[in-house]
Amino acid sequence: MKKTEIIILVAIAITIAVLVSYMGNLTTYETIASAKQKEGKSVKLVVKLQPNSIEYDAVKNPNYLAFNAVDTLGNVVKVIYHDAKPTDMEKSERLVLNGKIQGNQFECKSILLKCPSKYKDDLDAASKRMVNES
Description:
Elements: H1 3-23, E1 29-30, H2 32-37, E2 43-49, E3 55-57, E4 61-70, E5 76-81, E6 94-102, E7 105-114, H3 120-133
């Protein structure tokens, strides 16, 4: 074999190795039921906050937040987050939780708030204007 062919084969092998290593790090969104099947493994959940379920006392322990989360299938899990409560969490449309199931609760490492669309009010107002103009 020529040197250039060997170099090309080595480059292809390195590229394949890098791609395989990245595939192991890909995280998909799970439901609560599928996350329970992967107990102890890091997963991401897309959930809604269950109304009136927040347990947080900034004076007593500012680094403890607990609440119930509901996924799109209606499954509920208690979430434990060891950090301060995110601002306007109650107003968030959806939450993306990163963590793992431990027993009957979800040990959350990070919370990403998905806010309602800033254009929703504009669309409602525009549709009302169109009706009034007709």
